Q: What sequence folds into this?
């Protein structure tokens, strides 16, 4: 039997790593961070326990990479869904809705993720984080930013703040209010993106999409 080619080995490693990341998302979402062990993750992923240590220096780094992958895939799906659009305002609206939606749909996972980022280690520089950053920077560019190096970190900070506000134990803010505030800041129409059921928060004006925006 001939040895596998380097390209085949690379593809097998990629798939193995993605299975580990997906297993992490599934287990932490349902069990929580402390109750999920690396052994549990390896078993769910069908991988050897030592393989996790080969790819990731620790459990916290693994979780960050797993959540960044989830965020990247969720954001990519939102940006590319039908009807496809190149309109920068619509793409920014979709990006905001995608990230806020994860806070609502996966509160345990996202709360744990944000807690890890706010601790000493901060952002883990991994391929998943880099893909997420590329999509957000591209969104800011298409929106029309003249200073992406300033506007991208600001958007990231505003999204992080909104996610924390949604997940704040005992005093969460309504997602619709946070969405409206972000949309107001960026001059977006409530009807853009994926507006939640129930309409805008009480007292908020509902700007209507003009005909030029609808045609893009």
A:
């Amino acid at each position: 039997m001939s040895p596998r080619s380097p390209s085949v080995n690379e593809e097998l490693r990629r798939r193995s790593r993605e299975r580990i990341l997906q297993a992490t998302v599934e287990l932490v979402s349902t069990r929580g961070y402390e109750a999920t062990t690396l052994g549990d993750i390896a078993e769910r992923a069908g991988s050897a326990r030592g393989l996790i240590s080969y790819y990731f220096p620790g459990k916290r780094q693994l979780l960050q990479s797993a959540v960044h992958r989830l965020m990247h895939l969720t954001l990519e799906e939102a940006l590319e869904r039908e009807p496809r659009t190149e309109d920068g305002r619509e793409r920014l609206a979709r990006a905001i809705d995608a990230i806020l939606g994860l806070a609502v749909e996966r509160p345990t996972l996202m709360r744990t993720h944000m807690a890890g980022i706010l601790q000493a280690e901060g952002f883990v520089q991994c391929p998943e984080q880099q893909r997420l950053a590329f999509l957000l920077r591209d969104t800011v560019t298409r929106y029309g930013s003249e200073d992406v190096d300033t506007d991208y970190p600001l958007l990231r900070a505003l999204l992080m703040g909104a996610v924390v506000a949604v997940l704040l134990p005992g005093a969460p803010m309504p997602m619709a209010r946070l969405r409206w505030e972000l949309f107001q800041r960026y001059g977006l129409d409530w009807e853009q993106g994926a507006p939640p059921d129930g309409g805008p928060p009480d007292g908020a004006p509902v700007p209507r999409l003009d005909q030029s925006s609808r045609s893009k």
